[in-house]
Design goal:
With about 375 residues, the protein is of the alpha+beta class. Helices cover about 40% and strands about 5% of the residues. It contains 11 helices and 7 strands. The two termini are about 30 Å apart. InterPro entries: DNA_brk_join_enz, Integrase-like_cat_sf, Integrase_recombinase_N, Phage_Integrase-like_Recomb.
Length: about 375
């Protein structure tokens, strides 16, 4: 990214950030978005706040109860909350299976039981992904007990492979294309309860597309969710020609190293330009004490995943889009990956842009579309 004389940007709601002057977009066409290493000096961005743990040099030593409590906390923090829930569910389903067929509840779980368990889940029409997740949970339980992991048995592995072969999973979610993005955002004033609500959903739709956001990265689970995992006001800085986003934590960044995304003005169509739209939204966003989520309603409550999906469904139905059930909240991310591929952006850049850690992004590209 070219460097130049520094000048002040226009940060979101008073978040002062110094930046380097970006090259005039007329000099050279810029990509829609780019990803910046958080340690890079090209685009200065405030480091995410970290929790400091005091290091006392007192002579007192922690009690054994404190040590035990800390060891449990560190172990608990090794997995995301949703992963713990899934693994707990796996053990619960296994317990129910053993009780139903009067099988011994022993650890390590006998290979014969695991084989029967997988066959049972298959007959109950559990998806291959869910079965594999349950087996992973059982595997984890073996390891935390320091026992032999019987889930790694050859027969168990082959049964899981057979399950996937017999039930191939096809992702039939459709992409939100650029024309469709324009269409559904144009429909919002006709279906939203207020001008502000229309601007809120338009901004969230457009940013979800151009930043390839996962729904968990910019919405909350419910209205009372006070976690800071979804984008906060301080995570966004807007200038005249660019939008800078700090994604502090994501599915592929559980340790919170952060990813910085720079989105340029979209000059092909000003009505869906992420920079212009977000500037307009931020100007209208009320200052509500204690409410720091980027996307929030006028009363200060955060935008939830259910609300985003419901409004997308309303917009699609209002526009009479064919096969509306194929358009989900993840369709923005799918559409952006598809558009990037159509424009010839290389695979590595798409992976960084969408924060994929593997080649899984290839399944998101719908070409032809």
């Amino acid at each position: 990214m070219p460097r130049g004389n520094s000048k002040k940007g226009t940060p979101a709601r008073g978040q002062g950030v110094k930046r380097r002057r970006m090259a005039d977009p007329k000099e050279k066409e810029q990509p829609i978005a780019s990803v910046v290493n958080p340690r890079s000096s090209v685009v200065p961005f405030p480091e995410p706040s970290t929790k400091c743990i005091s290091d006392t040099n007192s002579n007192s030593e922690p009690s054994m109860d404190s040590i035990t409590e800390e060891s449990a906390r560190l172990f608990s923090d090794s997995l995301a909350g949703n992963t713990w829930k899934s693994y707990s569910r796996a053990r619960s389903v296994l317990d129910s299976f053993q009780l139903l067929y009067t099988l011994d509840k022993v650890w390590p779980v006998p290979v014969e039981q695991l084989v029967q368990f997988i066959a049972y889940l298959s007959l109950k029409h559990f998806s291959p992904a869910t079965v594999r997740l349950y087996i992973s949970g059982i595997s984890f339980s073996h390891k935390e007990r320091n026992l032999e992991d019987t889930t790694k048995n050859f027969v168990v592995s082959k049964m899981l492979e057979g399950l996937h072969r017999n039930h191939p999973q096809r992702d039939n979610r459709a992409p939100v294309t650029l024309p469709l993005l324009r269409q559904i955002t144009d429909a919002l004033p006709s279906i939203c309860s207020s001008t502000y609500e229309s601007l809120l959903f338009k901004s969230s739709f457009i940013l979800a597309f151009f930043a390839m956001l996962r729904v968990s990265e910019f919405t909350t689970k419910n209205k009372s969710d006070s976690s800071t995992e979804a984008l906060q006001l301080s995570d966004v800085v807007v200038s005249d020609c660019q939008l800078k986003i700090n994604i502090k934590k994501s599915k592929t960044d559980q340790r919170g190293y952060s990813t910085f995304i720079v989105i340029n003005k979209y000059r092909d169509n000003a009505s869906i330009c992420p920079v212009l739209t977000l500037k307009k939204y931020l100007a209208a966003r009320p200052a509500v004490s204690g409410c720091y989520h980027l996307f929030m309603h006028f009363d200060g409550s955060p935008l939830t995943r259910y609300q985003l999906s419901a409004m997308l469904r309303k917009s699609v139905n209002f526009c009479n889009i064919p096969n509306p059930n194929l358009l989900k909240s993840h369709s923005f991310r799918i559409g952006a990956a598809t558009e990037a591929s159509k424009r010839g952006i290389n695979d590595e850049a798409i992976k960084k842009w969408g924060r994929w850690s593997s080649g899984a992004f290839e399944r998101y590209i719908r070409i032809p579309w």
